[in-house]
Amino acid sequence: MKKILVTGGAGYIGSHTIIEILETTDCEVISADNYSNSNAKTFERIKNVTGKAVKNYAIDLCDGSAVNKMMQENSDIDGIIHFAAFKSVPESVDNPLQYYRNNMESLINMLAAVKEFNVPYFIFSSSCSVYGNIEKLPVNEETPQGAISPYGYTKQAGERVVQDFTCSYKNVKAVLLRYFNPVGAHISGKIGEVPLQRPANLVPVITQTAIGKMKETTVFGNDYKTRDGTCIRDYVHVSDIARAHVEALSYLEKNKNTSACSIFNLGTGSGVSVMEMITAFEKVTGKKLNYHIGNRRAGDVEAIYSDITKVEKELGWIPKYSLDDMMLSAWKWELNMKEGA
Ligand code: WQD
User: Fold this and answer.
1) Torsion sign over Cα 180, 184, 190, 194
2) What residue's CA is closest to ligand 1, atom 9?
3) Of the listed 12, 121, 151, 179, which one is catalytic?
4) Fold topology of 3-185+235-267
5) Is pLDDT at 253 greater than 90 in this prediction?
6) Mean pLDDT over residues 116-133, rounded?
7) Three-state secondary structure call for residue 141
8) For ligand 1, which residues put their CB under 6 angstroms from it?
């Protein structure tokens, strides 16, 4: 494996994955990111962590000719990891067409490039939001899909596009990685999640409340049928997610895949409630969080967490960071951002 293209490389998971590739393999990495939900400072941070520069093509992946031009300049790409997509559940409900056009067109353009430029390996960034509301927990890769938001459906449909493509075009092998809830920041404290607007996700809301950027955290409902009434999710450290991508590339390169398009859940296998997240934050930081119980948030599923038997067995991937590690790394990064990191 010599050269990897990471689309969405300036994003939260993309940037952590680039760091993991640069630190654990001899691959060269290039990125394609138009900064629609990130900024160029990410690449300074990547260099600060790894000492290596990453070339970024600031192109719109919905522009097929721009994709082609980038691929012509890099006709030796061995693998593509496709993160680039809009990813806000509430925003997708308000702007479904924008989500379908952006997320589907960019994916189709990247797959067309895979064929045009003979790229042998393709990894697709999918999501547990393909499952929707779940009857039987934990979810495994065979659990029927039923996305309930336009965002989730772009991932469900995106998976199907990749699967159909690998059935028709035999010279590529693909892996679909379904992330549960990625949280936390790189252990160095030099890079992490950088929400461009007011964050919607729980962990950045908690850290921004604790540092004073937000007045208080609203817990969206405590009347669910869960052990403490608040929603349950499967939170997983972003660096564990990043490492899974390196394992997936190696899995394909060593021909360990049992099908042309393999699917893996990436979670910890355990569910944690909103209140348990707040308690964990207060415990590891010693800071009392200012929160109140509010109404339920539309689109929230009551509980979801993963069965990771398959990814442990086939990819040999086991998450290594604890909930405390997730919360402490998120808090350290929030403090460092305040200092201008
Ligand atoms: C988690 C829980 C909220 C904010 C995310 C991504 C989605 C997908 C899956 C990758 C929920 C509660 C939140 C707040 C709260 N990831 N909450 N107060 O909704 O599970 O989805 O992970 O594809 O793209 O959006 O994550 O962090 O928004 O919410 O009570 O201020 O925290 O109700 O129960 P979610 P989240």
Assistant:
1) positive
2) 181
3) 151
4) Rossmann fold (3.40.50)
5) yes
6) 95
7) coil
8) 87, 89, 127-129, 179, 181, 200-202, 205, 217-220, 231, 233, 274, 297, 300
**DSSP of 260-307:** SEEEEEES-S--EEHHHHHHHHHHHH-----EEEEPPPTT--SB--B-
Predicted pLDDT of residue 340: 86
Considering only 130-144, 168-182, 324-338, which range has the smallest mean pLDDT?
A: 130-144
Mutate to test the pocket of ligand 1, among 88, 179, 220, 305 (most ligand atoms within 8 A of CB): 220
Q: CA dihedral in degrees (267, 272, 274, 276; nearest 10)? A: -140
55: tokens are: 């070339």
Q: Give the atom of ligand 1 at the shortest distance from the alpha carbon of 87.
A: 24
224 counts as catalytic: no
- Concatenate the DSSP letters of all residues of 145-199 into one string: P---SHHHHHHHHHHHHHHHHHHH-TT-EEEEEEE-EEE---TTSS-----SSS-
Q: Which atom of ligand 1 is nearest to the CA of 296?
A: 33
Pick from 130, 181, 291 the residue to mutate for probing ligand 1's pocket: most ligand atoms within 8 Å of its CB: 181
Instruction: Give bridge partners of residue 266 from the DSSP assignment.
Output: 179
Residues 264 and 236: beta-carbon distance below 8 Å: no
For the segment 125-163, what is each residue's pLDDT rounded down to a tens digit? 999 999 988 889 999 999 999 998 999 999 999 999 999
Domain residues of the chain, as ranges?
A: 3-185+235-267
